[in-house]
Amino acid sequence: MLPHRRRPAWAAASVGSARLPGMRTDEFWQLIDDARSGAGGEADAVAARAVALLSERDPEEIVGYAHHQRRVLAASYRVDLWGAAYLINGGASDDGFEYFRGWLMAQGRAVFARAVAEPDSLAELPRVRAAALSGEEFECEPMLAVPWDAYRKATASEMPADRDPVPVPDLNDFWDFDDEEEARRRLPGLAALFVEPPQE
Fold it and tell me: Which end of the chain is more exposed for a tag (fewer CB within 10 A), N or C?
């Protein structure tokens, strides 16, 4: 079954400009790393700590964070990563794929970048491997709301609407995520964990 496709909700409210105001890429990921410290590996706790840390910055930096987040989410809007989310979580709607990428962002830069380049690398994460037995799902909607929540906390106002949104890639190479043979071909590590072995 193919997931329902539409323009992601976050794409309609992206913030920033081409010059990436107020924050560099390294600073974006460093703030997430700082939020991860002491969060116990829980994505919702990372999101809450990120809001607290980001709300202490200047509004321009919060807008810069939002723009970097938009770029990160656009870069990860890929079919095989969606397929990985579908296998791991036992399904992934368009919203579910957004929330999965929120969880993935909370894992830090190295894990995120590798998963975007090689979605099957997620099979190497101990927590993902454990999920094959526990049925744990990985989603974090609050991570997507971090800059808006931080801006509201810092300024008692809503973040300004953007005038230069980050383009969202078109996905025109979908495959049937319920096709077990295709899953084994594209994502062999994850398929070994989450797809039933073929019947003899």
Answer: C
Contact 72, 29 (CB under 8 A): no
Task: Give which of 41, 49, 95, 48 is closest to 73, Cα–Cα.
Answer: 95
For residue 132, give its domain range: 20-156+176-192
The burial class, CB within 10 Å (0-12 / 13-18 / 19+), for 113 is middle
Q: Which 8-state DSSP code applies to residue 56?
A: T
- Residue 79 class from Cβ within 10 Å (0-12 exposed, 13-18 middle, 19+ buried)? middle
170: in domain: no
Q: Extract the tokens encoding 72.
A: 């990160």
- Looking at the domain assignment, is residue 167 inside a domain? no
Token pair listed for 177: 């995520």
Give this prediction's pTM: 0.86
> What DSSP state is assigned to residue 9?
G
The answer to whether residue 105 is domain-embedded is: yes
Q: What angle do CA 30, 32, 36 make, to 5 degrees?
A: 115
Would you say 151 and 159 are in contact if contact means Cβ atoms under 8 Å apart?
yes
How many independent structural domains does the chain possess? Answer: 1
Residue 13 forms part of a structural domain: no
| Residues 165/70, Cβ–Cβ less than 8 Å | yes
